[in-house]
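Key result, reporting period 2: structure in, sequence out.
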């Protein structure tokens, strides 16, 4: 009980103490991405397998006394958004996942940790991209000068919504004695999962993975302090939450870190950001054969590349010309004015990019959610005893606990042992079941075959005598 309260209480303790400008996909976009990810991996079916008969709509209650800061932070959001619990701290399972996604950047100090420069592995680095007066106001709101790189933040003990918090809560959601306790812990696990998905989704934004801090200091509203990414604001205006497109499949990666680095690298290689467009060139008197090398030299990063030949005649007319990728999506506009070739990203171009990026972000978030829940155990029973084996994901060393659930829904550990793991189908252990057992469960906490932390779960309902 104490551990669960500590996790949920600490998770949002800082939220009510700090406000500031958004530095991420804005909340409706993140919530929409998390929702699409949950649908793509059929989280509903997974929760039902674990014994939550309501699936995504299983009501879960976090008592106010257990997590007053969490519930107070969520109360700042409108109930119509679909992730604000009622006065009892109760809402459906999907709502808790979305709540984690909504709150992952609730403070500037957290939001600064949602960056990862694919070229050098660095996180957020502040700059003098805005006036000193604005910077002073931002810093007064706890906007840091430096941030933890996103792949490190999701496993950092300074992050209350990190991997170990998820694993602790997920384990307790299976192990805890009563249905009420298990529901509270499942809510905590879903909040942590949603927050980790949020951090991953942010790495689909080009400026976040190309070291372009200035793109997050643009004025995006009427108030001078309303600053952030124009790209992210446009996505919110265009798609909101419900319009976020479905995931483009489910992206698989071998390790947790690989989800973050892979998305960052692919995003950085395909898209420019406002501050990393090619440098302007004087092409008016440039010889034709010199244009290709000059264009290559104008790149601030090796990718995306620029063709050695551009349609400079079209670029000299009206609004200029468009550089498109192999899929036909706008990468940038270019224009020649008085012999000077310059590059830009207008709103229409950014919207084309967002339409291509959002399904990819959702597919990575879906893959991460599936990865977090990947651990499965296979149980067989004759009604008096149960045997537990390795499921579809190979396991390494860890602790196996076998639990029995009675007709009241109360679970009791009947065996706990250290195991070496094994490949799919390998036996892990067995135990006799008490009379009156309604459900038998296996719970493994340790590492998978690749050495990655995992909680694996399996359940079986014995046949009626």
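The corresponding designed sequence is given below.
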């Amino acid at each position: 009980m104490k551990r669960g309260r500590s996790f949920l209480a600490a998770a949002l303790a800082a939220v009510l103490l700090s406000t500031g400008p958004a530095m991420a996909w804005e909340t409706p976009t993140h919530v929409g991405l998390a929702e699409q990810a949950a649908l793509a991996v059929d989280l509903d079916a997974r929760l039902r397998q674990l014994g939550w008969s309501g699936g995504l709509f299983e009501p879960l209650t976090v008592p106010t006394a257990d997590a007053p800061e969490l519930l107070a932070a969520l109360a700042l959001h409108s109930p119509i958004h679909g992730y604000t619990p009622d006065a009892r701290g109760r809402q459906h399972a999907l709502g808790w996942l979305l709540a984690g996604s909504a709150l992952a950047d609730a403070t500037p100090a957290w939001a600064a940790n949602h960056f990862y420069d694919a070229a050098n592995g660095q996180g957020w680095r502040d700059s003098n991209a805005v006036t000193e007066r604005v910077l002073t106001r931002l810093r007064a709101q706890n906007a840091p000068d430096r941030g933890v790189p996103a792949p490190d933040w999701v496993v950092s003990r300074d992050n209350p919504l990190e991997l170990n918090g998820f694993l602790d809560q997920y384990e307790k959601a299976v192990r805890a004695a009563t249905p009420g306790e298990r529901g509270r812990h499942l809510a905590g696990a879903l909040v942590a999962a949603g927050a980790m998905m949020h951090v991953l989704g942010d790495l689909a934004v080009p400026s976040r993975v190309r070291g372009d801090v200035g793109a997050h200091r643009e004025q995006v509203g009427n108030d001078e302090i309303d600053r952030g990414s124009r790209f992210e604001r446009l996505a919110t205006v265009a798609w909101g939450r419900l319009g976020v497109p479905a995931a483009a499949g489910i992206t698989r990666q071998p390790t947790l870190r690989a989800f973050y680095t892979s998305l960052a690298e692919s995003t950085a290689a395909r898209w420019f950001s406002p501050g990393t467009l090619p440098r302007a060139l004087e092409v008016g008197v440039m010889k034709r054969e010199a244009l290709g090398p000059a264009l290559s030299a104008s790149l601030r990063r090796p990718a995306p590349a620029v063709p050695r030949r551009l349609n400079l005649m079209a670029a000299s007319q009206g609004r200029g010309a468009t550089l498109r990728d192999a899929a036909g999506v706008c990468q940038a506009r270019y224009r020649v004015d008085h012999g000077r070739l310059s590059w830009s990203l207008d709103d229409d171009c950014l919207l084309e990019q967002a339409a291509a990026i959002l399904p990819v972000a959702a597919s990575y978030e879906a893959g991460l959610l599936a990865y977090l829940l990947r651990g499965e155990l296979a149980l067989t029973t004759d009604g008096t005893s149960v045997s537990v084996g390795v499921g579809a994901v190979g396991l390494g060393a860890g602790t196996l606990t076998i639990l029995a659930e009675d007709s009241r829904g109360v679970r009791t550990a009947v065996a706990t042992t250290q195991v070496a793991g094994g490949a799919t189908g390998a036996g892990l252990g067995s135990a006799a079941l008490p009379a009156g057992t309604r459900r038998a469960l296996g719970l493994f906490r340790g590492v998978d075959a690749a050495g990655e932390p995992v909680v694996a779960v399996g359940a079986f309902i014995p046949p009626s005598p």
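The first strand starts at residue 59 and ends at 61. The two ends are 35 Å apart (CA to CA). This case is discussed further under Risks and Mitigation.
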